[in-house]
């Protein structure tokens, strides 16, 4: 035990207690920082998985838009070549039917891509 100039003495037990408290606080802080770093990595992995999924959906959207524009131009070309009103009506019917079928397929593909992106992000978050 030491004595300072004022005559006040700090008991050894108080010093031990203070030292243990500081050590425990340091360990708690280190644990907190480790958990925080792990959470940041999980968020980054999830974000990367979502970005990859979003990129896939964006590519699909552009491909679908191109398909629709191509189909519209083909319809317009066929329409111009039609000989009579009946042929024009048949072309329009076929075009609309094909577009509705295509939209249904594309909607299913979009849904599947979005679901996969969410699942991948969830797996990435749970992996850590």
From TrEMBL:
<dbReference type="InterPro" id="IPR018968">
    <property type="entry name" value="Phasin"/>
</dbReference>
<protein>
    <submittedName>
        <fullName>Phasin family protein</fullName>
    </submittedName>
</protein>
<dbReference type="Pfam" id="PF09361">
    <property type="entry name" value="Phasin_2"/>
</dbReference>
<feature type="region of interest" description="Disordered">
    <location>
        <begin position="109"/>
        <end position="128"/>
    </location>
</feature>
<feature type="domain" description="Phasin">
    <location>
        <begin position="31"/>
        <end position="127"/>
    </location>
</feature>
């Amino acid at each position: 035990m030491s004595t300072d100039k004022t005559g006040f003495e700090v008991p050894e037990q108080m010093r031990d207690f203070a030292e243990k408290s500081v050590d425990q606080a340091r360990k708690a802080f280190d644990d907190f920082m480790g958990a925080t770093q792990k959470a940041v990595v999980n968020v980054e992995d999830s974000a990367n998985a979502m970005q990859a999924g979003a990129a896939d959906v964006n590519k699909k959207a552009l491909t679908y838009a191109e398909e629709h524009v191509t189909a519209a131009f083909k319809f317009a070309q066929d329409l111009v070549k039609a000989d009579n009103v009946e042929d024009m009506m048949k072309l329009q019917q076929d075009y609309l039917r094909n577009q509705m079928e295509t939209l249904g397929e594309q909607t299913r593909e979009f849904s599947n891509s979005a679901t996969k992106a969410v699942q991948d992000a969830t797996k990435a978050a749970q992996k850590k």
